[in-house]
Amino acid sequence: MDPTFAAGRNAPLANFTNIQVMDAPVIPPAGALGDALNTGVIRNTSSTVMQNSPLEQYGAVTAGDYSRPGDPVKQFSIGVVDETAGDLTPSNSNFSSQRSRSNTPSTVSVGIPSVYFPSAASYGSFELLVPQELAKNVGMESLFSDEDSNVPFSIRSAWIPNERTSAALRALADSVPASDFLGADQITNVGVFSDRLFANPAFDLALKLVGTIPQSLLAISPDVMIGNNDVRSLVAQGFYSSAANVSAKLLGLIDQGFHRSGNSSRHTPESLKIWQLRIASLFMLQQYEQASKELEPFGDLDNPDLYLEFHRASFGDASSGSMVPSQLRLLHACLPAKLGNPKNSLERLFSSRNKIEALLNNALDGRLPAGVAQGNSHQFHSYWQEQRAKTLYQIVAVGITSENFEVAISTIKLLQKLLPSKAELLWHQCGLLYCHIGSYRLGRICFGKADSFSSGTLQNYSVLARKAILMLCEHSPVHALEIYKEMHQRFPHDAPAANGVAVGYFYSGRMSESMAFLEDLVFNKPKVFLTEQSIANLVGLYELQSIQVRQRKLRLLSLICQHIPDGAFVRQLRLTET
Amino acid sequence: MIPRSDLSLGQSMSSMDTSLTSGGSASNLSLAGKETGQLLSIKVLRLLKPSFLENNNVFGQLHYLQDEFDAQGTSSEKFHLSDKGAELCPTKSLSSDWSFLLSDQLVLPQSFGTMFLGQTLHCYICVSNGSNVTVRDITVRLEFQVQAAAAPRSELVLNEGKQFTLEPNQTFDFVLNREIRDLGSHMMIASITFANPQNAVDRQNIKKCFRYNVVRPMDFKNKFVSLPDGGYFGEFNIQNLTNCTIVLDSVKMITSPEYVAEELIPHNDLSLDEQLETRDFLGPNDSRQFVFRIPLKDRSRTGESMKSSASPGRVEILWRTKMGDLGKVTTSPLTRAVPEPRDIFVTLSKRPARVKIHKVFAVTVTIFSLCNRPLDFILKMLDNPAERSFVWCGVSGRPVGVLEPGGMLEVTLRVAPRSFGLHLFPRFCLLDKPTGQRYDSEDLAEIFVE
């Protein structure tokens, strides 16, 4: 074997074993190993290099680890970072070894990285965008086929840069040398923050406590998605830890992997899409600290190099607008609230909203962003109106978590004006919010309004659900029991109704009945009833009864392993190792 | 397990407020004492009301439940779930962008929360036998202690007279509701005694202490303004002292027998939409002002009421916290400043609010007698050279008649305004002929001249 490649493979593996070395005696059955691996539980019980092990195919690799001989990936270089001074043209043959060495400090450039602007001449020699072939190989194609794909990119990319950024972009258009107008803080040098691999928390816990992982009974397996590097599907299907691992790998490909933070790299709409999915996965895994560290170099998502104008050479002179996907913007805005700073979140969300309002107002005055054809004006409006509504929704959510109910309620009222078609949903949620605060009187008024908008086959369900919640809020869960029983009878596959019944039994002093009722449903129809709330309720009952608590929790854990893609709510079990 | 109906507590605890119709959410009370090695264990969960599950999802995941279900559910089931998913269950919805943090899924309380004065402590108590031997002759005794105050200790024997037996893995559980009437540190001591399974002669004891602290939920300030007829305006200011949001359910004045009360600006008259515009919750440190008019029931007793120091009554506040958990506090009887003992009380009972310049207008002065002798008055109009915005029209020094004890007199006076603006009604004085006592009027009113 070519020694270069061997080195390339060994280095990152050594890293892995440092991250998560499992106890040597715990050797799961053969079937379990695959499961463990596909969520990133890496175990290396011997010194053998795991050649051709399932590791790679499960995406448990870092930036340097996909450079196998013959792997088409290595033939593409992405990014135009000048790390080795004087050598502006990366050599394709060296690429893999360079990348793998990049984990060692000796080759990491220190100080402010210089940004290399491709001249027309150098531009011709290699692709700056993610090449089609690479895209196919790493599954990036799936990133484009998301919910926004029917909206032209020119519409999605509309954004209003802040003053400093727009000055920089103007200067760029006038061909002022970059050093004259760009501050070091205006370059977005991002990178994956840690090389830690994520594991399915349920599997992780099962391994620690039981030693084996129950065979997953899910109809969908993440393997294919991991093989295709299909981060989007992984996130959509709930395999968050795999999504986080695979996204780190993809970012490694475009020079934004582990240890690359602070080094300049190139942004494309696709790379930012991966960031969006990665941050979303980290949110779902509740790794807010890490998400915040990784988002930090992005600043306020308004740096010049996140705009298409900055990359005119590669995208063409007509291109303009921000490459940041709107969902990444929302995630970025919501993050401070998760870390205990809701005020900062609200500031970001309101500033986003103001920019969207400005875009919409400009468009109303006939000033569409460059690149959007007049014929698309309707689509532009509907896309940005939806973005505005999503931003407002997040404002409500942050308002609720931070108990800033004033903001939450006034924003819901605003949404009611903006979205008359969602009147029932909005009145319903407004009623829920009032009940949450404790004001059943206003809750009743809102629910009454929701009832008046309710129609169709689901009317019965929603009307009953609201009645039960009101009853609970005004009186007690015991009073709501009869309504929940009726709901459960008519909608036997509804988890909220079943939990309502269980809660009602419990509050009437019938704990064992409550437990038996819920256990029966959860264990017989886990696909429907194994929800976060059922788990939380069962665990609460087990702990109170304090009989065989651990065994019962472990039974639930194995059910979670079997039926939940990435058992994030395993924390509800409150299981400890001791 | 012992079914609830078997418990003799149904009766024995009714005197202690123990009923099953309680709501509330709960959490483990802080727990002292170890249970390792014990045959029995006792756990207490505060039954706060169940809360909505906070929906922590971000941006477009969690389709799996729905997909899988669709794949195998029958058509009708599929219908219910998938349709509902779109409308009501944001957690399962494809468009989870459109969900708030709240979903209508109930979860049992996860923490004890804060105990406020006036709330009822609902708790679920469970005695369980986690061992593999049968435990006989069990008695459970609960003792409530309040550290502060000389509050009496109270004790409650849960199964008075009837000791019970717990088989392995059996539990004895019940719901206890107890109104919290004292501030400060509270303790609930649970002691369980049972026959030693080894020798059936000794009795073994398990004691557990559950501590919790009771804090004041709100601050109450009041101010009374006397009305001429002996009634009052009561201004009540309620400030939320908790660190959470509370909802004022009702603020009622429970008046003493001689008064009635009506709230000014009641919310009940508002239309539904107007009610939605109001805000009935108080954030931390927010305060709200309520104004009541508290007239006398029997107006002929004005004089007596002015002298009596009887309290106008007390205020009862019902409030709710998260998910409508109810609390109730009543103030002690409110005191109001008793007007200084004096012989008469003078007020302008009829007067215009605005008058035209240079146009004579009339006011009616009402004089109440608060003394027990008849008074015979002469009315003198006073001239204040520094302030002549109003001039008197009429004769000064004329008799106004005899005022019987407890009676009242009405006198009409005419005044002409001389300058624009808001001016004080001029002063006059009353001379009691028999004694020569002089009573000066105070500043009775301000009148706007235009």
UniProtKB/TrEMBL annotation, chain A:
GO annotation, cellular component aspect: Golgi apparatus; TRAPP complex
Record region (Disordered): 87-107
Top-rank taxon: Eukaryota
InterPro entries in alphabetical order: TPR-like_helical_dom_sf
Comp. bias intervals (Low complexity): 91-103
Official protein name in the record: Trafficking protein particle complex subunit 12
Organism: Ramazzottius varieornatus (Water bear)
Lineage: Eukaryota, Metazoa, Ecdysozoa, Tardigrada, Eutardigrada
Primary gene name: RvY_10097-1
From TrEMBL, chain B:
Species name: Ramazzottius varieornatus (Water bear)
Disordered, as annotated region: 1-21
Ranges where the Trafficking protein particle complex subunit 13 middle domain occurs: 219-339
Pfam families linked: TRAPPC13_C, TRAPPC13_M, TRAPPC13_N
Gene: RvY_00228-1
Database matches in InterPro entries: TRAPPC13 (IPR010378), TRAPPC13_C (IPR055428), TRAPPC13_M (IPR055429), TRAPPC13_N (IPR055427)
Domain Trafficking protein particle complex subunit 13 C-terminal: residue ranges: 352-449
Signal peptide range in chain numbering: none
GO cellular component: TRAPPIII protein complex
Lineage: Eukaryota, Metazoa, Ecdysozoa, Tardigrada, Eutardigrada
Domain Trafficking protein particle complex subunit 13 N-terminal intervals: 38-214
Protein name, entry field: Trafficking protein particle complex subunit 13
Polar residues compositional bias, start-end: 8-17
